[in-house]
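REQUEST FORM: STRUCTURE PREDICTION
Request ID: SP-0412
Submitted by: Lab K.M.
Chain count: 1
Length (residues): 288
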Amino acid sequence: MPNLPDVVVWSIPAFVLLTVIEMISVRVHPDEDAAGYETKDAAASIGMGLGSLFFDFLWKIPIVALYTALYELTPLRVPVLWWTVPLMLLGQDFFYYWSHRGHHVIRILWACHVVHHSSRKFNLTTALRQPWTTLTVWPFYVPLVAAGVHPAALAFCSSANLVYQFWIHTERIDKMPRWFEFVFNTPSHHRVHHASQGGYLDRNFGGILIVWDRLFGSFVAETERPVYGLTKNINTFNPIKVATHEYVAIIKDVKKARSWRERAGRVFRGPGWAPAPVPETAEETVPA
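STATUS: Completed
RESULT:
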């Protein structure tokens, strides 16, 4: 098994330090148009992050078992070397893009990911607002394991991707150099991703690289100031409600559905999908 560091654990001191610096910066040099900080919101985000550590540990047990079984079955092997690790990071980032995009356009997957978008603020604590039901993510990385990437190496790459995305959850950085903005995900690109305006919805899914969005037609540059949150905000800081509200909504919609086709649509179509209204009969439309 590759001996790779747990980059998330090693990064916790940096997370804390950068968050404190951002809080002080917002207090000393406030931007009236920025979303800023709110105590209850920040506490909810931190609580969701701590909860995700516990639940992710639980989900890892069946996921690691599945990945290990697949790794033992495939004859392919990718050695962990100085030059293969960047390639594995590139591959993980590619499949992260499709996982992230899938979690926006399929409602049952969105029920997991919506947690991360539920804050109406955008700061470094928002990066910690992670879901508790990430069991939906593992299928997207099966091709990497089947290609011979060791599950431990995949875990390292996933952690590195997550750590990279911490710093892009801020309004305190306007734009990076033009070449950097073209290749990498940045605060500007990620502000668009967290916005609730129509033109910004379901855009900029990249993790480390933004080139995937440019290649697959999901990139939008930041122009107007984003309005953060959901198209229908949940107005709660209760971690359990934050973690489960979309699952509850799905169950309610499925119960009210009038056909199996509608039930399937409520689960597997996009968020906000609803069946076309039933047209009125001719007798109902003709005036008496």
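NOTES: The chain has a mean pLDDT of 94.
Reviewed by: T.R.
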